[in-house]
Specification:
The protein is α+β, with helices and mostly antiparallel strands and 326 residues long. The protein has helices at residues 2-8, 15-26, 35-54, 59-72, 76-96, 102-114, 118-130, 135-151, 155-168, 175-185, 207-218, 245-256, 264-271, 281-297, 302-306; strands at 194-197, 203-204, 223-226, 232-235, 240-243, 262-263, 307-309, 313-316, 322-325. The protein is globular.
């Protein structure tokens, strides 16, 4: 390929050449876990690093690069180093694209997750809101800022932001996200677990209840998508199967909307909020997910009875209780 030859000669690439490379890279989204996926992620880091060199004013390059930094970490030392690289990349994006909200939005979340620097969380959050952040990102950011205000002792302000998020979520697509943050805001619940059964509201569960749910999955009484830890697992009666982060996000979205056909474009907009995605990415992840679900559940009919293809997308239609732990 042209970009391979240019890379070998260490030549600077044009924007058009980088866009061609990006198309090729995106169309390989959804590779199975392992060395091939790590190589794909590292290639993405190289690609978007070069994008930033030729166009510092386009925030999506910095946002995608920071996301890749956070995903490519394989142990604690690498993960922490990549967090700092992601932070520096996003900070650069706020300088070069100071009128756009996206990088400010991501900085608010990364500081909340990694450093608990609540004053900075609120600063970047307010900047993103002031610059016109809209849609699902505004709902999620209001929740993140509410947690920051609560941790700093501004209780009334915190719950006013939660109220605003609920009003914006008119279709209840992000009810689970809002409830998760409400639970985090409660005293003595630093790492809450929320249980969601099909067509039921989420509820806080104790560690004993959590253990019972996992045991029930092993006994074949239910299946569990466990998102409570750094590594994500799907737990069935035959096996516990580790999922890649995107696999887990896609499956969580489908289970949350069980018995409903979810259009491919809706899945993409929910899982890849700020990133372009290859045209076949969701399909690739479905192939991988079905293989893993078959192993976990001990079934050969996943594609026809559990995770089915519809006219416009995909649908979770399992004949067994399906639980998501967040």
């Amino acid at each position: 390929m042209l970009f391979d030859r240019r890379q070998e000669r260490k030549e600077e690439m044009t924007v058009d050449e980088l866009l061609d490379w990006e198309d090729n890279w995106l169309n390989r989204e959804g590779l199975d876990e392992g060395e091939k996926r790590i190589a794909w992620l590292e290639e993405g880091v190289n690609l978007y690093s070069q994008f930033i060199q030729v166009d510092k004013k386009e925030p999506r390059y910095a946002i995608t690069l920071s996301d890749l930094y956070l995903e490519v970490g394989r142990d604690e030392k690498i993960r922490k180093g990549n967090y700092h690289a992601a932070y520096k990349t996003l900070r650069m994006a706020t300088i070069h694209a100071s009128k756009k909200p996206d990088a400010f939005y991501h900085l608010s979340f990364i500081l909340a997750k990694e450093d608990r620097k609540w004053e900075a969380v609120l600063f970047y959050g307010n900047e993103a809101l002031a610059k016109g952040l809209t849609g699902s990102k505004r709902i999620k950011l209001l929740c993140n800022m509410a947690l920051g205000y609560k941790r700093l002792g501004y209780v009334e302000k915190a719950y006013s932001l939660i109220k605003e998020a609920k009003l914006l979520d008119s279709t209840n697509d992000y009810e689970w996200f809002i409830e998760l943050y409400i639970d985090r805001m409660k005293e003595n619940r630093r790492e809450p677990i929320l249980l969601k059964e099909t067509n039921e509201k989420r509820k806080f569960v104790t560690k004993d209840h959590y253990t019972k749910v996992i045991d029930d999955a092993m006994d074949g009484k239910c299946v569990v998508l466990d998102l409570t830890k750094e590594e994500k697992f799907f737990r069935g009666c035959q096996d516990d199967i580790r999922l890649e982060r995107k696999e887990a996000e896609i499956l969580g979205f489908l289970i949350d909307h069980a018995m409903t056909s979810c259009p491919k474009v809706q899945i993409e907009s929910s899982v890849w909020i700020d990133r372009q995605v290859g045209s076949s990415a969701v399909k690739r992840y479905m192939v991988s997910l079905r293989k893993k679900l078959s192993q976990a559940m001990g079934r050969d009919d996943i594609a026809t009875s559990v995770l089915i293809t519809t006219t416009d997308g995909y649908e979770w239609r399992a004949d067994i209780p399906s639980i998501v732990l967040r």
